[in-house]
Amino acid sequence: MEIPYTISTRPDTGLWNAKVGIWLFLASEVMLFGALFSTYIILRTGSVEWPHGELNVPLGAINTVLLISSSVTMVMAWASLKMNEWGKHRLYLALTFALAAIFLVNKYFEYKEHLVEGQGPWHDSFFGIYYTLTGLHGLHILGGMIVMAYFLGPGARLWKKNPDQFANRIEITGLYWHFVDLVWIFLFPVLYLL
For residues 18 and 16, what is the distance between their CA atoms, to the nearest angstrom? Predict the structure, then answer.
């Protein structure tokens, strides 16, 4: 049985199934992070005093540059597929994976620094929401890395069988990845700068 609209677009919407699916999934993710950002606002406005300068701003800025760069390399990976440049696609997807890994390593050292000082999620409301928001974001990064690793490894076989479907899957992965990067663009100023 062939599932319709896995590669070709639906005539009524101009979209294919996976694209509709990822947009619905991302809408639920917006609600999840929206609830957490709302919690942050309620905690911050209800607090008598709120800590400032607790986080490493230069490291947060480096992580921002890493994730924005990874969005660019993800677009380049997809564009390379559209131009039938398999080698460039793999290079750009591997770069995206590497930038994500560096982000997580930086986040590990940042967490370690705070935990050594006794500033875990139990320390106060600020660190509770900090670990919740950045930890959930980190899990999303890890999830994206798992998908990228799959497409760099066993999932790459689909390119030989059906290049259009493979390119569509990379596009969907890219949409997810851009969302993850966008969340960080909101997290960085809210947690590190304000």
Answer: 6
* Domain boundaries, given as residue ranges, for the chain: 17-48+56-193
Count of residues in the chain: 194
CA separation for the pair 65, 71 (Å, rounded): 10
Tell me the backbone φ, ψ of residue 80, rounded to 5 degrees: -65, -40
170 and 82 in contact (C-beta within 8 Å)?
no
3: DSSP letter: P
Q: Please give the class, per CATH, of domain 17-48+56-193.
A: mainly alpha
| Successive 10-residue mean pLDDT values, the chain, 194 residues | 70 80 95 96 91 92 97 98 96 98 97 96 94 98 98 95 92 97 96 92
HSE value, Cβ hemisphere, 13 Å, CA-based, for 94: 9
Largest CA distance in the chain: 62
